[in-house]
Task: structure prediction
Amino acid sequence: MTTPSLYAAREPIFPRRVSGWFRRLKWWLMAATLGIYYLTPWIRWDRGPGLPDQAVLVDLAGRRFYFFWIEIWPHEFYFVAGLLIMAGLGLFLFTSALGRVWCGYACPQTVWTDLFILVERWIEGDRNARVRLHHAKWNARKWRLRITKWTVWMLIGLATGGAWVFYFTDAPTLLRNLLNLTAHPVAYVTIAILTLTTFVFGGFMREQVCIYMCPWPRIQAAMMDSDTITVAYREWRGEPRGKKRIEGAGDCIDCMACVNVCPMGIDIRDGQQMECITCALCIDACDDVMERIGRPRGLIDYLALSDEPAERAGEAPKPVWRHILRPRTVLYTAMWSAIGLGLLYALFIRSDIELTVSPVRNPTFVVQSDGAIRNIYDVRLRNKLGEARQFHLSLTSDAVLRIDLEGGDGQLNVDVPADATVLQRVYVTARPQDEAATAHRTDLRLWVEDVDSGERAGRETTFNGRVQ
Amino acid sequence: MSEKKVDETTGVETTGHSWDGIEELNNPLPRWWLWTLYATIIWGIGYTILFPAWPMISGATAGVLGYSTRAEVAARITEHQERNSALVEELISADLAALMPSNDLHRYGVARGRSVFQAQCSQCHGSGAAGAKGYPNLLDDDWLWGGDIENISLTVAHGVRNDTDPDARFSEMPAFAEILGDEEIESVVEYVVSLSAKDFDTALAASGQRVYAENCAACHGDDARGDRELGAPNLADAIWLYGGDRETLEETVRYSRYGVMPAWGQRLSDADVRAVSLYIHSLGGGE
Result:
């Protein structure tokens, strides 16, 4: 028995090239996801003068989030929170129905690692060539191949980090500034960090990120059950493994194709494993072999573990829709849709005028020399349009109350610049002989009306009297 | 050390921990993971050498870079003051009464005045400036010494009835216990009550009116509407600095009141005095 080492070096993995249905799907998804990531900041969107022309922009300095025709203000951040909850529930839904599809197809770590392996194969050759190169001594050829590979990886990393910063400011301007070295240092630092992490994560750490760094695999395990359709090996059909001509052998000829193509370096025939990201490349590899040796496809396949006893007994498995349609997935779908509909509803009813009314509670009221009672309110007026507007303030109440504005000289109109918020102090007064002056609380509603368009919005608040 | 146990299936040594028969394998850590750990240790040692870190008896180690958050704050404050110096000059010389709320100088003055108020004035006048018994409410429309910015500024700079500033607002009400008899005091209190209340003793108030005319009208005025030159309160309105019930009024007449406010001009800069005046004026009671 040897004493275990304190640390273990990574076992290098050299995934072999594979072709098939899932591989093609992954190429398409890679093109789509990378395309969306790199191109989105360059979509232009005309919002009129003074506003950014970028379709998707996270304007941290201006505290706005622009998404095509939708403009999110800081107080509407619940939209973003809602979308994040939907993303979470969506992940729950997909995981409970189809296992770790996110990990296998859409996770940035998977997509970029896939791209890096593609580059590696172009430069150093397929699995066998790469294994040979790995064991070869460092000579001119090995240096040349390695430096070429690392350079291309670094360029991809640079493009990755570079694309990220374009989401936060006007992309063409930033690109110009980046090139003539006048951009903000934050941009360079962000690009540098993301370039390096992409280079290291995609080039060197790869499956280690999924195994040791990522919390999702552990969380996703809780989303799965025996009805989840996941990548698995039909043990009852494959075992015992052996050469094709051996009497009584299963379909698995132990060709190791499934192991050689696996980017996580595992053997799916050992059963469900934490490392498996369900990328399904082993399915492509095995189906290819099964076809060549004249056996039915699907020795390794997307299947639900609960079907195993039926299949072993030679019965038909449950239809796919019965695996997918179960209380768990229905519940996730219902929750996901409810939040989605709620957000859509909120999006369509929201107005271009908004106000918040904060009654000043320190003190709750002020007695005037004639005995009148005055309450003070801080009213925030938000003009979400791209042009300056004049708002008229008024109030309605069952009680007799008078409204005045600070600095208004009897005027009740406030000018609010385009796309801005104005804080306006509002005084509401009850004459001493009126009931509101002595009542504990009186309801009232403050109204804001666009002088030109007549559009208006209101907020409920209360008036505090001097209780005697 | 207990005997080492090895898991049969994997050939890996176990830690000896077992839960419900499930044993924990003592797998080695990934190498990069350990390197990261060592790197953070080295970084941590370097950090404590470069920056203030180790607590000693009278302070912490300074660090070879000489970095100090206090110095950084001081530098930021200086930078801030330099940036605002033009506004401060303007604040000292501008006609504050003519500034509109939308004006930049007005906003700067009010913001600066708010911090001055919270630090220096809120102890007596309250954080919302609503005052308390004996400490005037700065939000209403009643001003003992005048409520325009010039008058507020004068009151802030020199204070009220203090011995330290010859320009302080000054007035003194006599303690009438030594001058008037009990009945006269009772009647004059009834007269003052009658000015703003509905229920009062008509006969008593009528006799109090004579006492008032002889003793009080000189300062509070024939119609009891007070006099700002003397800081004499209006006795006919709804606002009472010490309270408007008979008992409180009797105490006031008998022993008088003597509220003191410090001369803030001695402690605050001109800019601060003007800023806090602007702030108080903007609260809603200013004239």
About this structure: The interface with chain B takes residues 1, 4-10, 205, 208, 212, 360-363, 366-371, 374, 376, 406-407, 425, 427, 432 of chain A (CB under 8 Å). Chain A is about 40% helix and 20% strand. The first helix of chain A runs from residue 21 to 39.
